[in-house]
Specification:
alpha+beta; Cytochrome Bc1 Complex, Chain A, domain 1; 2 domains; five-stranded mixed sheet; globular
Length: 428
């Protein structure tokens, strides 16, 4: 076991980091003045990991299987780990993203017992054909509910417009049709492939003893590292969006839209790229930007309008939208403003305003035990130290923002998804 203690004086945090013999990464963030304890245990396995190589064999699994597995992981031979944790004073839950599946709880008492339960049920799956079949109906209902959401439809259709082969265009939960092919055997195979210590990380935040947490993890988790996985995310995407526009109809009171730009996916410093992308989005169309104010004053957008920058395995995008009957006009205005900023430069005072606001929001997020834990684990999986963000913010200049806008906010990279009031057009 390797132990490293890191200090982050600018944000007032200390992290004790372990690498166990089985390859597990463990982070402990001591909070001695708090009663609360939070544990987050995650696998680097998400909705986009449908195709992979393991032990020289290629696996093609159905869309939605990572999310399906998350649902079933709480099953144990004795009943439900969710019930066990709740009865023991913990508040458990889980989520599946494009690149990660995470299980967590927080509690004030019985922490070690709850941690044992968490590590045990995530490491030792228990499924039956009957329980898998029963869950299929529950997940199918969940999928149908989401598909009835205009917010979901406009986003998923945008991703399908942006990408040709990336599994980013496939819903995390899959479809009713895709989950029909999931069996207990398929779930066991994916668990064996991805839920191994070398592909997982554990973070504990709170008033805990770091050495005790490390000892518990070493005692409970498998000794074997697990086999190496090669992930397949389709053919490399070119710069241009797959198609320019998609228009659908749903029973909505107001038209909705989402414009997206297919951004270059850099492998060098993902954290820096993420912060540059977020700041570029705020400079371009944040609610304090000149563009936002103009579009709002002209009645082209309302308070629902917003945007963001997102990184997914192998791809990235900047998107913005909301309720508006002037989607194409807003989309053109965003493109024109990006060109202007790239040509004339970003106002230095406004840049500093955006940087301070973005840094402040990131710093405030560190008040949350959950945000600390998820950030550390996400950074671990993607190869960066999430708590070094103060230094990264300091390194970003107006020239970085201008370069990002010049290279990524272009006509060729643009796609537009619109939902108009009317009879539903049906599923994707």
């Amino acid at each position: 076991m390797v132990r490293i203690e890191k200090s982050y004086p600018r944000i007032g945090e200390t992290v004790v980091e372990y690498t166990l013999m089985n390859g597990l990464k463990l982070f402990v963030v001591p909070k001695p003045r708090y009663r609360r304890k939070y544990a987050f245990f995650a696998a680097r396995y998400g909705g986009m990991d449908m195709q992979f190589l393991r032990g020289g064999q290629r696996y093609d699994t159905p869309a939605g299987i990572a999310h399906y597995l998350e649902h079933k992981m709480f099953d144990t031979e004795d009943g439900s780990a969710m019930v066990t944790l709740s009865r023991n004073g913990a508040e458990p839950n889980a989520f599946t993203s494009n690149a990660m599946t995470g299980y967590y709880f927080d509690c004030t008492e019985h922490f070690e017992e709850n941690l044992r339960t968490l590590l045990s049920f995530v490491s030792v799956p228990y499924f039956t054909d009957e329980s898998v079949e029963k869950e299929r109906g529950i997940i199918a209902q969940e999928i149908r509910m989401v598909e009835d959401s205009p917010d979901w439809q406009v986003y998923e259709k945008l991703l399908a417009c942006l990408y040709r082969s990336s599994p980013a265009r496939v819903p995390i939960a899959g479809t009713v049709e895709s989950i029909a092919g999931i069996t207990a055997q398929t779930l066991y195979e994916c668990h064996r492939a991805f839920y191994c210590p070398s592909n997982m990380a554990l973070c504990v935040v709170g008033n805990v003893d770091a050495e005790r947490v490390a000892a518990l993890a070493g005692d409970i988790l498998p000794r074997e590292r697990g086999e190496e996985i090669t992930r397949c995310y389709g053919e490399k995407e070119d710069a241009a969006a797959a198609c320019g526009e998609t228009v659908s109809k749903m029973e909505v009171s107001l038209p909705q839209f989402l414009v997206g730009f297919k951004c270059a996916a850099e492998d060098a410093d993902l954290m820096r790229q993420s912060l540059v992308g977020e700041m570029a989005c705020d400079v371009l169309l944040g609610d304090s930007s000149p563009l936002y104010q103009r579009l709002y004053d002209e009645g082209l957008i309302n308070a629902s309008f917003g945007g963001g920058f997102d990184q997914l395995p192998g791809v990235a995008c900047l998107c913005a939208g909301g309720e508006s009957g002037h989607a194409r006009e807003v989309s053109d205005a965003i493109l024109a403003e990006a060109r202007r900023l790239a040509r004339e430069g970003v106002d230095p005072a406004f840049f500093e305003q955006v940087r301070r606001a973005s840094f402040g929001a990131t710093l405030r997020a560190m008040n949350s035990f959950e945000n600390i834990a998820v950030s550390l684990v996400d950074g671990c999986f993607r190869g960066f130290d999430a708590l070094r963000f103060p230094e990264v913010y300091e390194s970003i200049t107006p020239a970085d923002i201008e370069r990002f806008l010049r290279e990524n906010i272009t006509e060729a990279r643009r796609a537009l998804s619109i939902i108009e009031p009317g009879k539903e057009s049906g599923p994707l």
